[in-house]
Design a protein that fits this description.
Layout lengths: L8 E7 L7 H13 L4 H20 L5 E8 L2 E8 L4 E7 L2
Antiparallel strand pairs: 1-2, 2-3, 3-4
Helix pairs in contact: 1-2
Amino acid sequence: MPGAGHPEFMFSLSLSHEPRLDSMLADLSGAVLRHAGYAPDAVSELSGVLERAIAGALANGGRDCQVAFSARNGELHMALTSDAGTDWRTSRPLP
């Protein structure tokens, strides 16, 4: 809707027992990113960034993770926290 600005939303997911970016998480993160308005190449790039963050948390001994997406003030924020103390965050302008 022209002139309506960017939608604001929050979506989070708890992953337990050796989380990995399998097809379910890839589908969910892709749906969230498409909902936010990103083009397919950006969806693929951002999903890869998230996958690497999760792999890093696993490498540091994390087994329970919280993945969060939030859109506010024209930006998408992605965050990962794990029980191993691994915190990762990134943000991108909304399209």
